[in-house]
Amino acid sequence: MNKQQTTRQPHPSLTGGAKGGSLITIAIDGHSSCGKSTMAKDLAREIGYIYIDSGAMYRCCTLFALEQGLIAADGTIDEAALEARMSEIHVSFQLNAATGRPDTYLNGECVEQRIRTMEVSSHVSPIAALPFVRAAMTAQQQAMGREGGIVMDGRDIGTAVFPDAEMKVFVTASDEIRAQRRYDELVAKGQPADFDEVLANLRERDRIDSTRAVAPLRQADDAIVLDNSHMTIPEQKQWLLDLFHKKTHPSPSL
Ligand code: CDP
Predict the structure, then answer these.
(1) Is 124 in the pocket of ligand 1 (CB under 6 A)?
(2) Any domain includes 16
(3) Domain holding 106: CATH number?
(4) Ligand 1: which atom is nearest the Cα of residue 56?
(5) Of 16, 116, 156, 202, which is least surrounded by CB within 10 A?
């Protein structure tokens, strides 16, 4: 694993509180295409924390498997070959000065666009369900978050990766709204998109992600639910910031 290369510059007033002066860990989990990464990136930028897109790491494993011919046309994965080659997968993130957001790199090459295609989306959940893939990615995520000061989004961050995270959010929105958002995103990037295919893909990913044996998608008992179906991006950002301030500056007990 290459070293995380995004920088963190926490504002002094934004740290402390929950851990007696140290940086906290923020886990944002939820269903496919519910806008987790947008809100996690915005929050991290605002509070000077590092943002890690754990889904991008599973997408990199999927892109690697596709490009190495380890996924057959019928979707069958050559699990033995992928397991043997897991050590060849190095994911890192680098801040893109133009967008102000981190780009994903696979083995030193920027794959930010290529990991977001429908082809990758349609194979990622079976890849992410493989126990050896999860073990490798979970270990890397835990290493990245060892010092706190991190916002990580995914499916199992509050339950399996950082079960002790001080702030856990579980995000959801209606299927149709999520599909519309993802469809608009693909169209905006000039990628081929079909609404019904996008909707079917996110439902299928939710099904696989929620029913897999290892670290299934579920709400952590201590997570706070955010249904953002009818929220604007600025509204959800404010909601998260308010929660962050509550966690780091709890009101003194009377
Ligand atoms: O962007 P979107 O919410 O649609 O998905 P993503 O966060 O990019 O994640 C892609 C896929 O990776 C998910 O559908 C899961 O199958 C898998 N994933 C996972 O298993 N565990 C995580 N912590 C993050 C993603």
Answers:
(1) yes
(2) no
(3) 3.40.50.300
(4) 8
(5) 16
**Count of the separate structural domains present in the chain:** 1
Q: How would you label 150-169 residue by residue, b for 16+ Cβ within 10 Å and e otherwise?
A: bbbbbbbbbbbbbeebbbbb
Pocket probe for ligand 1: among 54, 77, 140, the residue whose CB has the most ligand atoms within 8 Å is 54
Cα separation of 100 and 206, whole Å?
30
Answer yes or no: is 194 within a domain: yes
Our mutation pick for probing the ligand 1 site, out of 132, 209, 210, 218, counting the most ligand atoms within 8 A of Cβ, is 209
Tokens representing 186 are 């693909």
- 254 belongs to a structural domain: no
Q: What is the greatest pairwise CA distance in the chain?
A: 64
Q: Which residue has a Cα nearest atom 9 of ligand 1?
A: 55
Is 71 inside any structural domain? yes
What DSSP character marks residue 249?
S
Atom of ligand 1 nearest to the CA of 36: 3
Domain that holds residue 146: 23-245
- Distance (Å, rounded) from C-alpha 249 to C-alpha 11? 14
d(CA 238, CA 8) in angstroms, rounded, equals 21
Full pLDDT tens readout for the chain, 254 residues? 444 445 454 433 344 333 345 799 999 999 999 989 989 999 999 999 999 999 999 999 999 999 999 999 999 999 999 999 999 999 999 989 998 889 999 999 999 999 999 999 999 999 999 999 999 999 999 999 998 999 999 999 999 999 999 999 999 999 999 999 999 999 998 988 999 999 999 999 999 999 999 999 999 999 999 999 999 999 999 999 999 999 998 776 54
- Tell me which H or E stretch contains 170: strand 167-172
